[in-house]
Design goal:
The complex is a heterodimer. By secondary structure, chain A is mainly α. Chain A contains 16 helices and two strands. The radius of gyration of chain B is 23 Å and the shape is globular. Classes of the chains: A mainly alpha, B alpha/beta.
């Protein structure tokens, strides 16, 4: 029994990796870039969905943690020229430290106060890049050069390599988070989320559990930031506005709060929907003013529809549909995802 | 069955409110329409005076077929930079529609696909890769913004995609060795700073001068040019702003406290308006000298009125812009006798009538004209490299008031401008056109060459 969930998680990861490998070779170079973008978002959204869905805290500042990871990456690549894997680890450690500092403060706050404090972080931190232009490059940002390794040959498409690197990181993060969510740590988070007093009485160190969740979430965001830096080739404050933090939270809610599979759905929506909506809008001959606002409107409509039809997010809908049509629900009893309502089970 | 509704409800509420807020503030105030952007098929190729060669039209490069040239761009159609700037691409599309309806470029129609990047470099990176890798555009044309375009400059050069006429006056596009495929177009901010600086040093000698500028390459290039011409002793205050922070009150208060009698502003339109309104609030009324990009009277007047309205006040935009000194490198809009203004007004009225005929529209049409000049020079069946070498060999002057700097050693565009003042919502030229170079020592000289007249057909000669 103890082995089976782990095997299933690893199996899902392998299937995912194989699927991405095939897709990245079949699709064109831009689709490869989109796969990389989706993987970046999955990494960040997965961290946030664990924080919000499992430990019950909210963060409107994860875009700022992405900025920390991205700037760390840019500075290390620019000045020290380390290999990316080492840079990624350092970026994760730096953002984990930042997450711990914010987490200590956040552990004392609840609901709107926590949202407000993290919102401030998300708004203020990227502006620090303007404070020391010599180091951070101000509004112009820092250029990041990252190419595919030589052994793949000179004609290997860079975007395919980017898709592979980002997807590999995203899959490792998902596997680790899925295991963490099933471990004692995950149980403690859920206990704290559902009833702090009861959790404390049961011997859970509430403050430590909450800080740890923040650290995990910030680390994921930091790694996502590092990936974003190398795929876009530029780290600038304009990339880490509050809109990014809100987009991450939107992806969490659209995908399904607390669900790692939901993190994938949510990331698919926030990356693919704007491109698709723009194509539809421009191909129907709408005026520029209308067409350019269609993606923003589509975003809102999808959010409202998902909330109305599947309050548990897309992943909730995915689990609900087979049941609705009387298909066996056996796998849903203990899904790969960490749906909170699936876990608590009995009434 | 216990569920976590407790947290979900506030989380949803937060996201929904935030999404609404983002949607509400992202709509550009522009009312332009791309009625001309859907290409009208080329009726005939006879007008395009190619004459000399009758070689069949081939798919000579990515994005070029026997009948079409597909080009792309990234533009801020939504978000903070959209007001005003979102009119530029539809205006370019209008000029291309006019060319397409009159024979096209050697019989090919120009298909212009511009995508919204909301002035966010991450989105710029994404949409430009879409245009190059998926839509296979021949060239990226007039990509707007310094931080945004910097995100794709090295990608485009690595892909050997012509990156022509970037919509930003940053001197960073002029790197013929490192980035051979990238070309600027408008007067760069260093030259502009020198021209404005020389004027101020001469006409306001002995006055106290304050700088107000955007804290990035745009503002700093401008200040570099100003400092070349204005003695350091005259400058009593240097205040900056960042485009993400609209609170310029403290900066304006510091300018006032310094006793500045002339304020030189390298700012985008929204921040020129904020500077003006904050000065008004503090009873501070220096002579304003504003860089070209931040001084379009129509855009400025609209912004002043809408910002004041948000703050619960009513102002007359045209009254507030009166007296602003600026510079221009395209003919003034009010000069209806100018052949270029007449041509672009005619095309605007036919293909882009919903947009106001302002500085942004003029800019969009003029830069599109330059692109057609370059394409005609690149030949009947051009490769991507042909376009780059055509521009490297220099382009005739066109609508700008001074010649281009284009050469294999310089990828800067327009080299000069005139000084003008705004009165009654209209810019009027004062005195001659000045030209200079981008170096610290190069003198600012009066331009004596003749200005070119617009061709009667409205389409450049090949």
């Amino acid at each position: 029994m103890t082995m089976r969930p782990l095997l299933r998680i690893l199996g899902a990861a392998l299937v995912g990796a194989a699927l991405i490998a095939v897709l990245s070779m079949k699709l064109n170079a831009f689709r490869d870039y989109q796969i990389a973008e989706i993987a970046v978002d999955v990494t960040a959204v997965a961290g946030l969905t664990v924080l919000t869905g499992l430990s019950g805290q909210i963060s409107l500042g994860n875009g700022a943690f992405m900025a920390i990871g991205a700037y760390t990456t840019a500075l290390l690549l620019l000045h020290l020229g380390w290999p990316f894997i080492a840079v990624l680890v350092i970026a994760a450690i730096v953002t984990a430290a930042a997450g711990a500092i914010v987490g200590v403060a956040a552990a004392r706050l609840h609901g709107p106060y926590l949202a407000g404090a993290t919102l401030m972080l998300g708004v203020a931190l990227p502006s620090l890049a303007n404070a020391d232009q010599g180091i951070f490059g101000g509004d112009q940002g820092l250029n990041v050069v990252y190419s595919a390794p030589g052994f793949l040959g000179v004609n290997f498409p860079l975007t395919r390599w980017q898709a592979w690197v980002c997807s590999a990181v995203a899959i490792v993060v998902l596997v680790l988070l899925a295991n963490l969510a099933r471990s004692r740590v995950g149980r403690n988070w859920r206990a704290v989320r559902d009833d702090e007093v009861a959790a404390a009485l049961a011997g859970v160190n509430v403050a430590r559990a909450r800080v740890l969740a923040f650290v995990v979430s910030a680390t994921c965001a930091g790694m996502a930031g590092a990936l974003l830096a190398v795929i876009t080739g530029l780290v600038a404050p304009g990339a880490f506005t509050i809109t990014l933090s809100i987009a991450l939270l939107t992806a969490v809610v659209i995908g399904g709060l607390g669900s790692l599979s939901g993190a994938i759905w949510g990331s698919l929506v926030i990356v693919l929907l704007p491109t698709y909506a723009t194509d539809v809008a421009t191909s129907h001959g709408l005026s520029t003013t209308v067409a350019s606002n269609i993606p923003v409107a589509a975003y809102g409509v999808v959010l409202i529809l998902v909330m109305l039809i599947f309050p548990q997010g897309i992943q909730g809908g995915v689990l609900w549909l087979p049941r609705r049509f009387g298909i066996s629900t056996a796998p849903a009893r203990q899904p790969v995802s960490t749906e909170p309502h699936e876990k608590e089970g009995t009434e | 069955m216990k569920r976590s509704h407790r947290l979900r409800v506030p989380a949803i509420a937060v996201v929904a409110t935030a999404a609404l807020a983002v949607a509400a503030c992202s709509s550009g105030s522009s009312t332009s329409s791309a009625s001309g952007s859907g290409s009208s098929p080329a009726a005939s190729s006879s007008v395009s005076a190619s004459g000399s060669s009758s070689a069949p039209l081939t798919a000579s490069a990515p994005g070029i077929t026997a009948t079409t040239i597909t080009i792309g761009s990234h533009q801020p159609l939504t978000g903070p930079a959209a007001p005003g700037y979102s009119e530029i691409a539809p205006a370019s599309a209008a000029y291309f529609a006019y060319v397409n309806a009159n024979g096209g470029v050697y019989g090919r129609t120009i298909q212009y696909k511009y995508l919204d990047d909301a002035y966010n470099p991450t989105q710029t990176a994404s949409v430009v890769r879409q245009l190059v890798l998926q839509d296979n555009v021949y060239s990226i044309f007039n990509g707007l913004g310094t931080p945004t375009h910097l995100a794709v400059e090295s990608f485009l050069n690595a892909q050997k995609v012509p990156d022509v006429f970037v919509a930003s006056g940053c001197d960073c596009w002029n790197q013929p060795t490192a980035d051979p495929d990238t070309f600027g177009w408008q007067l760069d901010y260093i030259r502009e700073g020198k021209i404005l600086g020389q004027y101020v040093a001469k006409h306001f000698a002995g006055k106290k001068i304050g700088y107000f500028y955007q804290d990035d390459e745009f503002g700093m290039d401008g200040v570099k040019g100003l400092d070349d011409e204005i003695p350091k002793s005259m400058v009593v205050a240097r205040q900056t702003y960042v485009p993400t922070n609209t609170n310029v009150g403290p900066a304006v208060a510091a300018l006032r406290a310094s006793g500045a009698q002339v304020v030189l502003s390298f700012s985008i339109p929204a921040f020129t308006a904020l500077l003006k309104l904050n000065s008004l609030k503090l009873g501070f009324s220096p002579t304003l000298v504003v860089s070209n990009v931040g001084s379009d009277p129509i855009t400025l007047s609209g912004l002043l009125e809408s910002f004041a309205k948000q703050g619960g006040a009513t102002v007359n935009g045209n009254q507030l812009t009166a007296g602003i000194i600026t510079d221009g490198y395209l003919p003034t809009l009010g000069d209806t006798s100018n052949s270029w203004i007449a041509l672009f007004k005619k095309i605007h009225d036919q293909y882009d009538a919903k947009a106001p005929f302002d500085g942004n529209v003029l800019y969009g049409e003029a830069v599109a004209y330059t692109f057609v000049q370059a394409m005609l020079k690149a030949g009947r069946n051009p490769t991507r490299a042909d376009l780059v070498s055509a521009i490297d060999a220099g382009l005739p002057q066109g609508p700008a008031v001074a010649p281009y700097a284009y050469a294999s050693t310089s990828h800067d565009g327009v080299t000069g401008a005139y000084i003008g003042t705004i009165g009654n919502g209209v810019l009027t030229q004062q005195g001659p056109v000045y030209t200079t170079d981008a170096s610290a020592t190069g003198a600012v000289t009066t331009y004596t060459g003749a200005e070119e007249q617009a061709p009667a057909s409205g389409i450049p000669a090949p």
